[in-house]
Design a protein that fits this description.
This protein has twelve helices and five strands. The protein has two domains: about 5-165, no CATH class; about 255-405, Histidine kinase-like ATPase, C-terminal domain (Heat Shock Protein 90), CATH 3.30.565. The two termini are about 85 Å apart. By secondary structure, the chain is α+β, with helices and mostly antiparallel strands. The longest helix is centred in the middle third of the chain and has 82 residues, at about 130-210. The protein is about 65% helix and about 10% strand.
């Protein structure tokens, strides 16, 4: 048998000892019927036992208390029994199931009204109202006190659970934000620095394998240029990471107007006359959203880096297309000749396509990358094709509004 909580034991012991003391001092009422007055002590012991159930089985304790109180009233009431019964009513509402929380207060009100009417019918005197007042004090008052305490307790519990849920959601948001920021910085590092390092690797290999001093000097010049540019980009990114305030400041976003510079850099990095870098820019004059323009720029940048590392000799074509007079996505298409060599000129980690797919997904676009048939029979090209939506719901609403105004 499990031990009773200390609070219940103390309440039961105090009620029992107090009742015995009142009985011994003769501070109890006379029996209502012809029953031995000492039965009030039996009622007192039963009521104290019911107090041990006030938390574990409050409804059972209340039922036992009703029987004990009935015996107490018949055999001569001891005030300690009445006090402990009010506590049992209070505990039944506070610790009982939801049904008790709703039913017990109503039952006490009905009991008080019925008891008052019965007393008035039997006594036929205004003093019968004292019976109703007494019933209200020992039943209705503790029941509604329990209701008030339970409402506040449940509200406090709900507030605590809501605070815990809010803290959990905040932690999840923080982790998601940290993960997104790490992924963004990883893409930036890969897209910005990988091209410079690829050029350094290719030209350093050429400088070591070619005995021509002039060619070696040219390779070393390209290596130095890419080293300086890569170092500057690394310092910029590290500065953003170290300075929390700088991360919130608007930074210069690369624009598609700088694609020609990307092609010029790729020509210098390829160091092979067999490569021809061509740009077909048919994106029109309408401005592009900054996220879309950044994604398109990085896709072109990564595709050119991959072409320098993997493509065979031939044209590397960059196509930027967008419908001029009707809604439609910005299409970025980069093609290069497939090479039949066993491995790339520079080893890679395979993160370029992953980064491009992430960038396209962030703006709600679609990316395909893989071999396609070439223009000549028996040839194959490697194609990267991205469709980036630029007509959002807000822009559509603005277009409709402008047409209505016109």
């Amino acid at each position: 048998m499990s031990r009773s909580p200390r609070e219940e034991v103390l309440i039961a012991a105090a009620g029992l000892l107090g009742g015995v003391a009142l009985y011994a001092l003769g501070l109890s009422s006379s029996p209502a019927v012809a029953v031995p007055h000492r039965l009030a002590l039996v009622a007192l012991a039963v009521m104290a036992g019911a107090e041990l159930l006030r938390r574990r089985a409050p409804l059972t304790g209340l039922a036992v208390g009703v029987g004990a109180l009935t015996l107490d009233v018949l055999s001569g009431s001891i005030m300690a029994n009445v006090a402990m019964f009010t506590d049992l009513v209070y505990a039944a509402v506070l610790y009982g199931p939801p049904a008790a929380y709703r039913i017990v207060p109503r039952a006490t009100e009905v009991l008080t009204v019925v008891g008052t009417l019965l007393a008035a019918a039997i006594v036929r005197s205004p003093s019968a109202l004292l019976v109703g007042i007494g019933l209200g004090v020992i039943t209705v008052a503790p029941a509604w006190t329990g209701v008030g305490v339970r409402v506040h307790r449940d509200a406090a519990r709900s507030a605590r659970l809501e605070a815990e849920r809010t803290a959990l959601l905040a932690e999840l948001d923080r982790r998601e934000a940290v993960g997104a920021e790490r992924a963004r910085m990883a893409r930036e590092l890969h897209d910005v620095v990988a091209g410079h390092l690829s050029a350094i690797a290719i030209h350093s290999t050429a400088a070591l394998s070619i005995g021509d001093p002039k060619a070696s000097d040219e390779a070393l010049a390209v290596i130095r240029e890419n080293s300086v540019q890569g170092l500057a980009e690394m310092r910029r990114l590290i500065g953003i990471l170290r300075d929390a305030g700088a991360a919130d400041e608007p930074a210069a976003v690369p624009r598609l107007d700088g694609v020609e510079a990307l092609l010029a850099r790729a020509r210098g990095a390829a160091r092979d006359d067999g490569f021809v870098f061509v740009l077909h820019d048919e994106r029109g004059t309408r401005p592009l959203p900054a996220p879309v323009e950044l994604a398109a720029y990085r896709i072109v940048q990564e595709s050119l880096t991959n072409a320098v590392k993997h493509a065979g000799q031939g044209p590397v074509t960059v196509e930027l297309t967008r419908p001029e007079r009707r809604p439609g996505p910005l299409v970025v298409r980069v093609t290069s000749r497939l090479d039949d060599r066993s491995g790339p000129r520079v080893p890679g980690a395979g993160l370029g396509l992953i980064g491009m797919r992430e960038r396209v997904a962030l703006v709600g676009g679609r990316l395909t990358a893989g071999p396609v048939p070439g223009p000549e029979r028996g040839t194959a090209l490697w194609e990267v094709r991205a469709e980036l939506p630029v007509e959002g719901p807000e822009e559509d609403a603005e277009n409709v509004e402008s047409e209505d105004t016109a």
